Amino acid sequence: MSPRLILDFSFDEVVQELRELGQPNYRARQVWEWIWRHLAQDFFAMTNLPLPLREELGQRFLISTLEVLVRECDEEGTEKVLFALPDGASVEAVLIREEGRRTVCISTQVGCPVGCTFCATGQMGFVRNLSAGEIAAQVLHFARALRDVGEHVTHVVVMGMGEPFLNYEDTLKALLNLNDPRGFNLGARRITVSTIGVVPAMLRFAQEGRQFNLAVSLHAPDDRLRKKLVPLADRWPIKQIISAVDAYILATGRRVTFEYVLLGGVNDQLRHARALASLLRGRLVHVNLIPFNPAPGLPFQPPDAGQVELFRQELLAHGIDVTVRRSRGVKIQAGCGQLRSRVFQARNALPGLEVCEKNHSQDKQGFP
Ligand code: SAH
Ligand code: SF4
Fold first, then answer.
1. Are 160 and 299 found together in one domain?
2. Residue in 194, 199, 267, 339 to alter for ligand 1 test, most ligand atoms within 8 A of Cβ
3. Helices and strands counted in the chain (H then E)
């Protein structure tokens, strides 16, 4: 049997695996701590386990299968990695450094079946789902790199490649493992899942009894316009998405974020802002405006800076909380799926391309 990825297992499953090897429960706890708390990369490092057990575990399991293919940084310390998977697939993850925050943005699928017309990932088609371990391993990669400079991951956002709610089980398992206080111990309120609006999964997420943040990618205030941007809009109309958001707020008490990519001349007019405001008014929500990040082959223009401001003001005037996402990583094309597309257009840049020069840990003051 080929070795299995131990990050794919929940704590209870690790207990079960170790029991099958004749080991008591406390051994499972030790292994769990080595992997999720001490971020061990191989079983031989687990020095409080007997050597024969370490050898046995090393034959049966792998700790990570991700290999860094390309790594790029910009001057603000945003760091993007393209990981290779054993089957030849590749996915992106990004570390965003902000004052007091170290946020990792992770992928849940190779490509995406939704096919949004403004999204580089959507345009590359769908290859496969990532497993729970492949999803969590992206976070652990950056956690190790940060630990080396005395820092840690403070937030995780599931906003990379793929639609997490079309890979619900594995995404949830990865997040529960990252949240587990016996190991990685990242609070649920520091974890955000972004969905294009897969209504049944949103309703299920509401019932998980957790405090995860939910972000919903709306992008248009009416179904007619939304269908032009999001092919899946046919399946779950905006009305159903809003009801699912209401259910999430009711079940969790959490404020929900609506993401809205502003596409120049398409969905960025004041009438769109007004329609959006009347859709959301009175709800515990917040709008995050994301100026379109252009990439080759995407048939849209970024909005005018002035128009972004007018749109924001209009929402505010109608009592809607709104922020504009700062365009981080535009230079290194840190938008969803963009590094991968670029790399595959210029394969001669591979392998092991590394474009990170500066040490970005100078802003440690105020770091929690
Ligand atoms: N599939 C999920 C999560 C991944 S996409 C979702 O769609 O919500 C994460 C965010 O990046 C979404 O809000 C998406 O609309 C946005 N995005 C995708 N392509 C973009 C682009 N070219 N410019 C700006 N934002 C983009
Ligand atoms: Fe998929 Fe999200 Fe991109 Fe749409 S925006 S294609 S749902 S990754």
1. yes
2. 194
3. 12, 15
Q: Which residues line ligand 1 (CB under 6 A)?
A: 118-119, 159, 163, 194-196, 217, 259, 261, 290, 292-293, 295, 298, 335-336
Task: Tell me how many domains the chain contains.
Answer: 2
- Tokens 């400079």 correspond to what residue? 149
Q: Is the CB of 136 under 6 A from ligand 2?
A: no
Residue 230 and residue 171 share a domain: yes
Asked whether residue 37 falls in the same domain as residue 75, the answer is no
Residue 94 falls inside a structural domain: yes
In a domain, 150, yes or no: yes
Contacts of the segment 40-44: beta carbons below 8 A, 24+ positions apart: 41/144
Amino acid letter for position 34: W
Ligand index nearest the alpha carbon of residue 111:
2
Model pLDDT for residues 57-113, shown as the tens digit of each residue? 999 999 999 999 999 998 889 999 999 999 999 999 999 999 999 999 999 999 999
Q: What is the pTM of this model?
A: 0.93
Ligand 2 geometric centre to CA of 84 (Å):
20
Cα separation, 330 vs 302, whole angstroms? 12
For the record, the structure tokens of 5 come out as: 């990825």
